[in-house]
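TEACHING EXERCISE
Course module: macromolecular assemblies
Task: Read the component lines below, then compare them to the predicted structure of the full complex.
Student: A.B.
Group: 4
Components provided:
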Amino acid sequence: VVITRDQVDLPPPAIDSRLTLHPLWPEIDRISTEQITAAFEEVGGEIGWQLFAEEGDMKMYRREMEVDGMVTDPLKAMHKVRGVSAREMCHYFFNPRYRYEWETTLETMRIAEEISCDALVCHQTFKRIWPASQRDALFWSHVRAAPAHTYAVTNHSTTNDDFPANTGACIRLFVTVCLACRSTCPAGQRPTRDNITTSIAYCSTVNPGGWAPAGVLRAVYKREYPKFLKRFTQYVVEQCRDKPLAM
Ligand code: 6CM
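Instructor-supplied answer key:
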């Protein structure tokens, strides 16, 4: 078995102590815990959630919501992927070195701060969507293990003096995203690429931060979120195909 460079920096099974000493730690810990708990809550029968995309095992729901006239529809998606683990899924979602390979809305990306092996602060600009102004975002990103073969990445907007908001061409948007993944395999068997299934819960709430036409924004989300989740999961399956399973 050959361990590739890709696998040396997999998400750690326990929180990096450098993160717990950082000023952002109380916020990162609180929001990550809340997001992971909420991610696995079912939306099925709940009032307000409308199913807007369904394909194979993927189901996407949104709840229409506006804050000060701006669309902030919470989105929730469920999916199932075979042949990859929760840890592998989160590795490719968290690690910025793969981001351009699956994130199609991205224009530029910079690491504003490397906090620890499981947390960083990231600045991104997104492709402009006519007729709105271009958007950027600054968010911390944290990957962690949770009980029951679960790994999750949480991204949440933050501030940094070196990356001030709304000073150039971009309007700063605000984001809270959680990708929570849980692996299972048949009882009594050892997990392998052939028998593992990973359930994915993806939640996203974006506040566009300034004027953006509601209709355009909702149309963009309706097109882009299913595209993202299909493309990202397919990307991870392809990346992992000939590598040993990392649990
Ligand atoms: O979660 C996703 N990607 C992560 C890594 O990039 C990260 C990103 C969060 C930001 C999501 C904001 C997307 C909005 C893009 C368009 C903005 C234009 C507004 C103009 C209005 C007319 O968590 C995947 C995100 C997939 C998004 C479709």
